[in-house]
Amino acid sequence: MKQNELFSAFAKQARQHHLQKSRTMLAERIAMGRSARRKQPMSQVSNKVIEKWVAAARRGR
User: What is this structure's pTM?
Assistant: First the structure.
């Protein structure tokens, strides 16, 4: 593998990892706010519900 191929593969992986991380952080931030309002522990909120919240937040609610 040439040097720049290796680097681009690494950069791609890093970008995907960063996106994943920022997305989960966003989800956690939103979910914390929601659960605080509802007085519901985070562990009882399903991933599907969190995804719904994230989608809603992305639309600008």
Answer: 0.31
